[in-house]
Specification:
heterodimer, A: 315 residues, alpha+beta, Alpha-Beta Plaits, 10 helices, disordered C terminus, B: 460 residues, Multidrug efflux transporter AcrB transmembrane fold
């Protein structure tokens, strides 16, 4: 039987490497931008106006029109062969928007409005607060449910805590990805991304629970084995299912990512990263945390060979 | 074996029913929802704004410092916004209260947000109209000199009820507009009956006096945005102030006074959130997510057959039924499908597949352990159950949190997603434990011996 639990040091190190970018980003962003995360207008308030022209336009030229109108804090991206411009600026009144439309049409010819979104700053703040509460509420409820579901094994509370740590790990890994994509491609955390993160949480716990469930069963079945051995056995027994499930989820997500259209790309890519992280953390974090807690040591101590008692049992 | 046969029949009936509901054929009336006017609406998948294009506007009470929201004011404001939205001729517009000081209006098909906002925020036009001897009733829609096309506009909207506008082309002369009013309040007279007292402005009082003194004994209709609010009879010439009496309840009197006073909205509303999506972008999204969904699911089906052979094939059949169950419920409830909602649904398909994988892995373990196929099927299902139940329940917990969160902010994206995923998770448990199990029992249930053929079928 391959002793996954003995390599805790490696598993935890890998996690730290993937979690670190999000933490570094938050520190950097907190200092330079005054907010920890690249929040979209869903949380900060503002206007996103996507318009398409009959000709290709230069982002800088579009931006200049807004700067001239007094909106210095405007960013412009172009997509679709530079014919569609995505303009982000402050919330505006209707007549002001009409002026801007006329200024745009005067320079670039007739435009079609693709999407328009404008959100006041106060409601944005409320939404971001509520989002944080939603995240916290989901975590606490999940922790409590797991502690209750595992009441038949010793230390049920540990299972809840381990699942929630794995969950936070997945949120941070997802944020790392988002942070990098923010620097590379200007991605922002919007309402849909939050939905992706919450899904990742649900899925990550889902996955952790499947392994924990096997652990719950095996603890009663192999009473003479140490906890580490039972944990290792449970991981390996559920490995085929883990891989098979992961493949099916990847098949669906990759299909949406490739064919699902631009609107969903950021959403699905975020979810994909979170899912892979969730699969990893169920096996290499949540279960390992239980073993570490049981052995009262973060890393495996070579003096104590937890697998030695059970190594005679074939996988 | 008899139980299995009965279960198979039940599954076949349910599946046939689901397919029948999903197919775009005419359905009997009892199956179909009726709209407000009692007219049955055909069963169809409702698409959200992001898929069919449209505009969503969120309005918030914008009270001056120190003023409190009157009880019922938001409800009145909502009704007025609803009436104005309907005047846009938008089919299936939805106006809802959000929290205690916000209103959202969803306007499918309206791609010009500016026009929609103008209409919603415009102060309504209050008029005093000469009924010309006609019997005008509360709620009737009429043309007036100031709004000569009200009836025509109203009848153009798909939910129009022609009986609400019996005077067709006729245009009633506007005697005065709402600016003659200084204020209006609901109060009780000495007998405890509710009435509306109103005061007139300086210039307004002359106009009012001239009209009322010439029309004593005649009715005068009070009309807001073309809708008759009340049609009292003029009993005396009115100069500075007057009273409207009638059989009013307290709520009616209050509502009428508010509508007269503000000409429109009982609270000033400001726009806090606007989003608008063009119909072409919506159509593109529908097409691409449909293709993505079909290819994604097709590859999952293929994977299941390669991995689990005959049980995989049975699971696919169960999953197909599962998809139809979902779609049937979307139509019946109805669930408004958004882009995120479709993703939630596809994800729930993933969860449903996972339930089957958990079961089949268990089944193989049990067979390897030397059990007969019949016992292995039973053990596989009962052993996989706790894992499936606990893991799905945690997903349901986060769905519930998302739903509450989405509901609070009119974030229909989040809400739609939580709804389809949650619904899918519940149905997936049913599918795995009722449909797949019945299929497996029918296939292997009578094999009490470990046989070569059982091995081939299950592929362990």
């Amino acid at each position: 039987m391959y002793r996954i639990v003995e390599k805790r040091k490696l598993w935890f190190s890998i996690s730290v490497i993937f979690v670190l970018p999000s933490l570094l980003f938050m520190i950097w962003s907190g200092i330079t931008r005054g907010q920890l995360l690249p929040l979209s207008i869903d949380y900060t308030g503002g206007t996103v106006w996507e318009v398409s022209f009959d000709q290709a336009v230069q982002p800088a030229a579009v931006r200049q029109i807004f700067v001239n109108a007094g909106y210095g804090d405007t960013t412009v991206f172009t997509v679709n062969n530079d014919q569609t411009a995505q303009i982000k600026f402050k919330p505006v009144e209707l007549d002001e928007k009409e002026n801007l439309r006329q200024a745009l049409e005067a320079q670039f010819g007739p435009l079609t409005e693709v999407t328009y979104r404008s959100l006041g700053p106060s409601i944005g703040r409320e939404v971001s607060q509520a989002a944080f509460f939603a995240l916290a509420a989901a975590s606490i409820l999940i922790l409590l449910y797991i502690a209750w579901a595992f009441r038949s094994v010793p230390h049920p509370f540990r299972y809840g805590v381990a699942a929630v740590i794995a969950l936070i790990h997945d949120v941070l890994v997802t944020l790392s990805f988002l942070a990098i994509m923010n620097l590379v491609a200007g991605w922002e955390l919007d309402a849909l991304t939050l939905t992706a993160i919450l899904t990742v949480i649900g899925y990550s716990v889902n996955d952790t629970v499947v392994i924990f469930d096997r652990l719950r069963e095996n603890i009663h079945r192999y009473r003479n084995e140490s906890f580490a051995v039972v944990a290792n056995r449970s991981i390996i027994e559920t490995a085929t299912r883990s891989i098979a499930t992961q493949i099916t989820v990847l098949l669906i997500l990759v299909a949406i990512l490739v064919l699902g259209g631009a609107t969903l790309q950021q959403f699905v890519a975020t979810m994909l990263v979170g899912f892979i992280s969730g699969m990893y953390s169920s096996i290499f974090n949540a279960t390992q945390i239980l073993v570490a807690w049981d052995e009262k040591s973060l890393f495996h101590r070579s003096g104590k060979k937890p697998a030695s008692q059970g190594s005679a049992v074939p996988a | 074996m008899r139980n299995t046969t009965i279960s198979l029949i039940v599954i076949a009936i349910l599946a046939a029913l689901a397919v029948y509901i999903v197919l775009p054929v005419p359905h009997p009336d009892w199956m179909v929802r009726s709209d407000a006017a009692g007219k049955p609406t055909p069963l169809e998948l409702k698409l959200g704004l992001d898929l069919q294009g449209g505009t969503q506007v969120m309005l918030e009470a914008d009270l001056p410092e120190g003023r409190e929201l009157q009880p019922g004011a938001m409800e009145t404001a909502k009704n007025i916004v609803e009436r104005r939205v309907n005047s846009l001729g938008v089919s299936e517009a939805v106006v809802q209260s959000q929290g205690d000081n916000r209103i959202t209006a969803e306007l499918p098909g309206v791609s010009d947000p500016d026009q929609a906002i103008e209409t919603i925020r415009s102060t309504g036009q209050l008029e005093f109209v000469d009924p010309q001897g006609q019997f005008l009733q509360q709620g009737m829609i009429i043309n007036t000199t100031n709004r000569p096309t009200t009836v025509q506009d109203y009848l153009a909207s798909p939910n129009a009820d022609p009986s609400a506008a019996p005077y067709g082309e006729r245009i009633f002369p506007t005697a005065m507009t709402g600016d003659v009013l200084r204020t209006a309040i609901a109060r009780q007279d000495q007998f405890g009956l509710w009435e509306i007292g109103f005061e007139l402005t300086g210039p307004g009082s002359d106009q009012f006096f001239a009209y009322t003194s010439a029309n004593i004994g005649q009715p005068m209709a009070i009309v807001l945005d073309g809708v008759v609010l009340s049609a009292p009879t003029i009993q005396a010439a009115i100069r500075d102030q007057g009273v409207i009496t009638g059989q009013f309840s307290e709520a009616e009197a209050n509502s009428l006074a508010i509508q007269m006073r503000y000409g429109s909205l009982p609270v000033p509303l400001k726009v806090v959130d606007v989003r608008s999506i063009s119909a072409t972008l919506g159509q593109d999204s529908v097409n691409s997510s449909l293709i993505a969904g079909l290819i994604g699911m097709g590859s999952v089906f293929l994977f299941m057959v390669l991995m689990y052979r005959v049980p995989g094939l049975l699971a696919n059949l169960a999953l197909l039924i599962y998809v139809f169950f979902n779609l049937a419920i979307y139509k019946l409830v109805p669930v408004t499908l958004t882009l995120a909602g479709i993703t939630g649904f596809l994800l729930s398909v993933g969860m449903a597949v996972d339930a089957n994988i958990l079961i089949f892995e268990r089944l193989r373990e049990e067979l390897r352990g030397g059990r007969s196929p019949r016992l292995a099927v039973e053990a596989g299902f009962s052993r996989a159950w706790p894992a499936i139940f606990d893991s799905n329940l945690t997903t349901l917990i986060s769905c519930a949190v998302l739903y509450v969160f989405g509901n609070q902010f009119g974030a229909s994206i989040v809400k739609g997603y939580a709804l389809t995923l949650g619904l899918g998770v519940v149905l997936s448990m049913f599918t795995a434990f009722f449909i797949t199990r019945t299929f497996m029992r029918a296939l292997l249930g009578n094999r009490t011996q470990r046989t070569k053929s059982a091995q081939t079928i299950v592929g362990y």
